From TrEMBL:
It is found in: Membrane. It is a multi-pass membrane protein. One of its GO terms (molecular function) is quinol-cytochrome-c reductase activity. Component of the ubiquinol-cytochrome c reductase complex (complex III or cytochrome b-c1 complex), which is a respiratory chain that generates an electrochemical potential coupled to ATP synthesis. Pfam families: Cytochrom_B_C (PF00032), Cytochrome_B (PF00033). Keywords: Electron transport, Heme, Iron, Membrane, Metal-binding, Respiratory chain, Transmembrane, Transmembrane helix, Transport. Heme b b566 binds at H110, H211. A ubiquinone binds at H216. The lineage of its organism: Bacteria, Pseudomonadati, Bdellovibrionota, Bdellovibrionia, Bdellovibrionales. This is Cytochrome b. Residues 13-224 form the Cytochrome b/b6 N-terminal region profile domain. Coiled coil: none annotated. It comes from Micavibrio aeruginosavorus. Heme b b562 binds at H96, H197. InterPro entries: Cyt_b/b6_C, Cyt_b/b6_C_sf, Cyt_b/b6_N, Cytb/b6-like_sf, Cytochrome_b, Cytochrome_b_N_euk/bac, Di-haem_cyt_TM.
Length: 494
């Protein structure tokens, strides 16, 4: 690197350092003159905003850790002491507590932008996967941080979430015991979670570095989703996008500050301010708002996989076989399945719908006891409801890793794919609806009539159908609108 071309700096100290360690030349190349598509909109601000929020979380978290006591007998009291006795402790805690919510807001908008504009497609697959890894690490960090105040909500949330692992056959109980450090949520759990909660943000920062590195190798996507054709399509990152990012960051931080100082507990639950008591279960255990859609997916799976549900899934697999593998290039059994799926798609979809309805209703209990309908072999369950819910919850996140291969349409941006655009906007609405369902109790009803459980199940169905059925089908069948010749041409016409 020392043999590469260096930038010239007027400051003698900077120039002296750069001659020996060309870090300033690297920064100038990667963030100063780095060629960036000239048609970015404000959706592209949220990567930088998320980075600022991550740094805010790390700094405020380090300060809080100086005053926090990771012991079951003192954790809750130490948090209260931070709020009352530590200089500006209340502000630091609220900055950290609400910073997590605003960090997730920025990341969710960042993810939506990536899906909407096709930022996961070649050559940015690894960039997207690193982003999903960051998101998974964020979820783990946030869950452990939720437990640290040692409140009723945090302690019982740890009990519920760790209990998911018991659904895994054979090794589930061992994993739960290893995670908790015992057979229940107690002092070893708190110590483990505090240690990991302190470590993971630095790991996130490291993966963010790789994420940015991958971005600077493959280059940025843009709202048109077309490649840069030449220097006329780009602008230097500084000062054009540093100024734009600064403005967007200022607006975002203004909202963050308003919430932190005027509505600091707007995202909190009352039971989060009551000390953890393992002998008293809260009436309603809920995770933080940014996990609610996945919590709704978990609760929506109130049925296991019996022969009828299995038949429904098999019929859907056969229907989708021509989409995933195609009949032309396959031989033998694969070719037969593809031909059957293509010729009898409507019949297979009808079979899938009827079989699913029968399998579902055979597992719905009447108020008087017993199943709603009795069918042969309906009690033969291959995957029980608990395991199905856990697999669906984790699968709903892991699916994002495979998005570059689920959507293989040559056009990236939803601007030129009307069906994909509609489906993606519906996914965003569906995600919000699932969040609302996850926030309410399991027996709640919309307008007192429609059970939210049904709405959550429909929302879960659309979520998985979007990724596993709609995207692959649209990749092969959607006709896109004409693309502009270049970014510069589109900008001049706008």
């Amino acid at each position: 690197m020392s043999s590469g071309q260096r930038a010239e700096f007027k400051n003698p100290v900077v120039s002296w350092i750069d001659e020996r360690l060309p870090v300033f030349s690297m920064m100038q190349k990667e963030y100063g003159v780095f060629p960036t598509p000239r048609n970015f909109n404000y959706f592209w601000n949220f990567g930088a905003i998320a980075m600022v929020m991550l740094i805010t979380m790390i700094v405020s978290g380090i300060v809080l850790a100086m005053h926090y006591t990771p012991h079951a007998d003192h954790a809750f009291s130490s948090v209260e002491r931070i709020m009352r006795d530590v200089n500006w402790g209340w502000m630091i805690r609220y900055i950290h507590m609400n910073g997590a919510s605003f960090f997730f807001i920025a990341v969710y908008i960042h993810i939506f932008r990536g899906i909407y504009y096709g930022s996961y497609k070649k050559p940015r697959e690894l960039l997207w996967i690193l982003g999903v890894i960051i998101y998974l690490l964020m979820m783990a960090t946030a869950f452990m941080g939720y437990t640290l105040p040692w409140s009723q909500m945090g302690g019982w949330a740890a009990t519920v979430i760790s209990g998911f692992f018991t659904a895994i056959p054979v090794v589930g109980d061992m994993i739960q015991t290893l995670l908790l450090g015992g057979f229940s949520v107690d002092n070893p759990t708190l110590n483990r979670f505090f240690s990991l909660h302190y470590l993971l943000p630095f790991l996130i920062f490291a993966v963010v570095f790789l994420h940015v590195w991958a971005l600077h190798v493959s280059g940025s996507n843009n709202p048109l989703g077309i490649d840069v054709k030449g220097p006329q399509d780009t602008l230097p990152f500084h000062p054009y996008y540093t100024m734009k990012d600064t403005f967007g960051l200022g607006v975002f931080l203004l909202l963050y500050v308003i919430v932190t100082f005027f509505f600091p507990n707007i995202f909190a639950h009352p039971d989060h301010f009551v000390e953890y008591n393992p002998m008293v279960t809260p009436p309603h255990i809920v995770p933080e708002w940014y996990f609610l859609p996945f919590y709704a997916v978990l609760r929506g799976l109130t049925f296991g996989v019996n022969p009828y549900i299995g038949l429904s899934l098999f019929a859907l697999i056969v229907v989708m076989a021509p989409v995933y593998c195609g009949a032309d290039k396959k031989t033998g059994l694969c070719s037969i399945i593809c031909v059957v799926g293509r010729k009898y798609a409507v019949l297979l979809l009808a079979i899938a719908a009827v079989a699913f309805a029968l399998g579902y209703l055979s597992q719905v209990e009447k108020a008087t006891g017993g199943a709603l309908i009795s069918l042969p072999l309906s009690n033969l369950v291959f995957v029980n409801a608990k395991l199905a819910g856990v697999l669906a919850m984790f699968g709903s996140v892991i699916l994002l890793v495979f998005l570059p291969w689920l959507d293989t349409h040559p056009v990236r941006s939803a601007r030129f794919r009307p069906l994909f655009k509609t489906a993606t906007l519906l996914l965003a609405i569906d995600f919000v609806i699932l969040g609302y369902v996850g926030m309410e109790t399991a027996d709640a009803a919309l307008f007192g009539v429609i059970p939210l459980l049904w709405i959550g199940q429909l929302g879960t169905g659309y979520y998985f159908a979007y990724f596993l059925m709609l995207l692959p089908w649209l990749s092969r069948n959607e006709k896109a609108q004409p693309l502009p010749a270049s970014i510069n041409e589109a900008v001049l016409k706008a």
